Task: inverse folding
């Protein structure tokens, strides 16, 4: 089973459960979902109407935590740890994995120094073990560890949930891309039209030349025919004396 299919099945399970739970049960489900080793997308769970009911209650911190796992990073958690529930080991690992995905969204080459700072890793061996065992083996990223250049070359990274700001930026980017594509398509169509016109003109020119060649051939044939002259041979009578 590929990672996308597994994600979809897990999301469906958690969404159905969230639709029937309230209060402390929802808080427990959020902890479970953010700890699951194979779940990396949370937007659909966040959209379940039941979750909005814990906003402003004693369990609202868990809703904030779910938002963090949907859009945030390990650095974001450290900056807001006092207002969020304490994370268990599985959640810490998950949030660090998501942090790698966030970095990989905009950079195809991640330096070891940047990664160690972002993930709170103290040495290269620990960092490489994390990238191999927790990121590449899980299927969320693919890439190459370049020990000589001290960087991770990203070849593939799974997408994260889009934050509201990212969605509007993506729509703007896609709109711009569509406009550019339309302009390019129009330009290509104009070039094709021009090529067709030139092709027709070339065909007509070739036809005119061929017709003229045929005329010349016919004229040459006429000139090359032998000219026969008919003489009237009149008999004359000679009177001999």
Result:
């Amino acid at each position: 089973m590929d990672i996308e299919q597994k994600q979809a099945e897990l999301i469906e399970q958690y969404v159905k459960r969230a639709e029937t739970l309230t209060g402390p049960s929802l808080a427990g489900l959020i902890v479970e979902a953010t700890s699951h080793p194979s779940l990396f997308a949370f937007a659909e769970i966040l959209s379940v109407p039941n979750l909005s009911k814990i906003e402003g209650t004693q369990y609202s911190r868990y809703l904030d935590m779910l938002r963090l796992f949907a859009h945030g990073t390990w650095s974001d958690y450290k900056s807001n740890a006092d207002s969020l529930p304490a994370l268990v080991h599985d959640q810490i690992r998950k949030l660090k994995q998501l942090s790698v995905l966030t970095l990989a969204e905009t950079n195809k080459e991640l330096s070891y120094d940047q990664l160690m700072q972002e993930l709170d890793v103290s040495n290269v061996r620990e960092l490489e073990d994390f990238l191999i065992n927790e990121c590449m083996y899980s299927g969320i990223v693919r890439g190459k560890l370049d020990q000589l250049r001290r960087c991770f070359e990203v070849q593939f990274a799974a997408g994260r949930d889009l934050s509201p700001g990212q969605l509007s930026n993506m729509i703007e980017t896609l709109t711009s891309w569509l406009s550019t594509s339309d302009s390019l398509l129009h330009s290509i169509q104009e070039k094709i039209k021009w090529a067709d016109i030139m092709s027709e003109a070339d065909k007509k020119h070739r036809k005119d030349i061929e017709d003229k060649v045929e005329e010349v051939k016919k004229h040459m044939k006429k000139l090359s025919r032998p000219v026969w002259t008919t003489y009237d041979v009149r008999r004359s009578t000679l009177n001999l004396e």
User: Anything to note?
Assistant: The mean pLDDT is 87. The chain is about 65% helix and 5% strand. The radius of gyration is 40 Å. Residues 107 and 226 are 88 Å apart (CA to CA).
